[in-house]
Fold:
Amino acid sequence: MATIGMTPRPFTHIDTWVFDLDNTLYPHHVNLWQQVDARIGEFISAFLKISAEEARVIQKDYYRRYGTSMRGMMTEHGVHADDYLAYVHKIDHSPLEPNPAMGAAIAKLPGRKLILTNGSTDHAGAVLERLGITQHFEAVFDIIAAELEPKPAPQTYDRFLRVHGVDPSKSAMFEDLARNLVVPHQLGMTTVLVVPDGAKEVVREDWELEGRDAAYVDHVTDDLTGFLEKLST
Structure:
């Protein structure tokens, strides 16, 4: 599937390709993020000394309001980012399998390739290694580089563009959350929403799957590898 918005921006002028990490560079149905999600709940429960059920409510509330549960825990409860990130990203990455076809498609894209993630560099490194695509990316801009301000905060995109010398009008952004494409589109980036394969079961909240028809989403795909292959031919 590859659908487009009302006035989709093209890719002919793109010289920088920016990718989110989780649920974007690997399929939603792998549910790798569910491991992180579970450990976030465990961390919140232990830190606040509350039940798993209470922690779940707080976790999802902060995620929606602050961009990440971590930011909410830092703001509301003084959690240290290092402790949080070390705990929640201690997961089993083995469900991820090498994706040489996607790697080849990324390699053929003209220009630079960068990662922009709300996760950590260590987690991103493990994911890219398992997928076998590490060598195709120039750099990873993680939550630490973002000074702990997660997407969709406007200052995070501004900082990313400045640090890496990226011209947004010549860039494309690939994301699995539509709300994280609002600011990129405002900045002039061509935006691509990566959605789950409808034939596979995924664990997502309803709001996380919204936005396919939004004006700030230029393109939608449920097959990133196939989408990239068409761009690079």
